[in-house]
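Tokens in:
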């Protein structure tokens, strides 16, 4: 999935919520804190990390046994709304 931004950057938790993959900002913060989010292939724990066009976010939702039950990818692109 691609998410278009028209600013220099967006914070990681805001991007995840904007993508629609989570219902609340609180859940976005939780999955980041739980180590379920990768930024360009590396686990990212900073919810306020600045995400820029060209960055690739991977979200791996895990169950209680640490098994991946959902996997999503977000590509950040720059664009202007028409």
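Residues out:
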């Amino acid at each position: 999935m691609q998410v278009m931004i028209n600013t220099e950057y967006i914070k990681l938790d805001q991007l995840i919520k904007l993508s629609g993959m989570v219902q609340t900002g609180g859940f976005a913060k939780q999955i980041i804190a739980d180590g379920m989010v990768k930024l360009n292939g590396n686990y990212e724990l900073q919810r306020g990390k600045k995400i820029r066009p060209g960055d690739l976010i991977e979200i791996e939702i895990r169950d209680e046994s640490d098994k991946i039950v959902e996997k999503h990818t977000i590509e950040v692109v720059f664009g202007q709304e028409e």
